Amino acid sequence: MLTGKQKRFLRAKAHHLKPIFQVGKDGVNENMLTQVSEALEKRELIKVNVLQNCLEDKEDVAEQLVNGTNAELVQIIGATIVLYRESEEHKTIELP
């Protein structure tokens, strides 16, 4: 689990990132979980955008992404979900 200080640090790092995934009306599926997981391995910190036509609540989408990829939820801001998972091979972010 991330501490408040670590989440604050990651929020600051994520501020300038652009969302690289979008969740639409189909919601979260296996293919998306695989791609998000691979992106987390490469980048550690990513943003996912929940589109307006998504039928699920953004909190539910965030929970599915977290459970499906073993990531940590940094924050949900507006329709954007920020996820973090420590990379095994491409570790670049040093948490405080």
Description:
By secondary structure, this protein is α+β, with helices and mostly antiparallel strands. The chain has a single domain, classed as Translation Initiation Factor IF3 (2-Layer Sandwich), CATH 3.30.110.60. The chain contains three helices and four strands, in the order H-E-H-E-H-E-E. Strand 1, helix 2 and strand 2 form a beta-alpha-beta unit. The mean pLDDT is 95.
Summarize the entry for a quick read.
The chain is an alpha+beta fold and 96 residues long. The chain has helices at 4-14, 30-43, 58-69, and strands at residues 21-23, 45-50, 72-77, 80-84. It has a four-stranded mixed sheet with strand order 1-2-4-3, sandwiched between helices.
Query: Approximately what portion of the residues adopt beta-strand conformation?
Result: 15-25%
Main pleated sheet = 4 strands, mixed
Q: For this structure, what is the CATH homologous superfamily?
A: YhbY-like
Mean pLDDT: 95
Question: Which short descriptors sum up this protein?
Answer:
3 helices, 96 residues, alpha+beta
Topology:
Elements: H1 4-14, E1 21-23, H2 30-43, E2 45-50, H3 58-69, E3 72-77, E4 80-84
Parallel strand pairs: 1-2
Antiparallel strand pairs: 2-4, 3-4
Pfam families: CRS1_YhbY (PF01985)
Domain CRM: 1-96
Protein name: CRM domain-containing protein
